[in-house]
Amino acid sequence: MKSAKFAVLLLILITVNIIKAQDFPSEYPLELKIYPFEFPYNISGGYSYFGMNQLVQNSESWTIFIHETFGNLLISSGCNDLFAFFFLGIYNISIDQHLPLGSQWMYQEAHRSVLGSNDVESADSIYEFDFNVSDKKVYEVSDSELAYFHDTHPVEFIRSVTAGSELTIVKSTELKKNYFYSGKSLKFILPNLWINQINLFWNLQFSSISTINDSIDDLNTKEKNIKDRDFSGPEFTTWVYELYHMDEPYSNRGIHPSGTGYNRYISYSDLSKDEIDYLTRVTYLMLLNFASPQMLGINRMEISETENIYLNFSFMTFLTPFGYTVDFNLMSKIKVLDFSITYHSYVNNDKYFPGVDFEIYRLPLWFINDNFYAGGLISVWNQPDELLFNTEKSMLGGMIKGELIYKYNDKFEFFSECGFKTEGWVAGQLSLDNEFTFGIGLNVLMY
User: Who is most buried in 64, 217, 295, 362, counting CB within 10 A?
Assistant: First the structure.
């Protein structure tokens, strides 16, 4: 698998070098958000798990810091852009996945966020710092807690399985926005954007072919102890299986081949033809996550240089508790107004449901003080009723968020944000119910 990743990395390197990542003076610094507190999760969970905003923002900031720091060090030492790109690609393949705050850490901790918010205790193998094990897991979950969670909160259970892939896409989207609005070149961050999306696509494709059965058989042979087992195993076969079997008790999975505990892992052979077809469809829809000029280093498309108008766009495909959503995001910069519009196409087994977001980024509050900025988001959606896979009924919902930023000096800012959402699924928001959130933190400005 690693050799294939190196080959793909080389192909991307050549392609991006031909197109050349845009490189011009940035208008704003990059924001590195240090997010130490998010209500209510750091109160109710006592930091035994994190809020999803915390995970995304802290991991994004670490990713930017590492890539920009090492990239600039390599260039200043005489290396060219190609070498820096390949070096950072190797870092993402070989090192990032083993470190706290890295992309794989965020991926696994996302699972733990949903589990923890539903009173299911777990552990993350990232903290073992075993560089010889590439497949990380969420483990030390008891069968009794897992079965109770599954049977009493089936929608939340499905969400727990796909939370890692969800935050991977949210993080990539936030990185694209951060670089678009700052105007900074994408050349150092591209390896991270590509490797994470390649990993996600390959894992989905691997789940939709029969060879995954051998991997599951191997895991079942090795994992004699219940608490050594991942809480879900191959998550994408589990996800599609649960969509079609939501009302079945967890005990229907039978006994583990060792004779101890439940048989947690869903293999390819456990799936019906309809389930395989649905998984295959979503696998190909995941290719839309590569559909953005930014993936080729084109950070902005100039509409009017004199009027300072720029645009860019991206597509995103998310797996959800009710099926999937295909989103289209348009980022816009018109003079001092930075904003984005996202159109959501929510899809379950029976119907399509629409939604739309409008987000403002770093609007200067001159009428207060030159050091104050504001941001905000308004979202309205129509989603499947009760977030169910098999329903034609819909429920109307929405979310509103606001952020206030105080620029302390040229290096640091303080921020606070709060938001409220109604019942519904929002990528990067932990609760599926009505929820009020509040967070504070520090922006480190990277020029």
Answer: 64
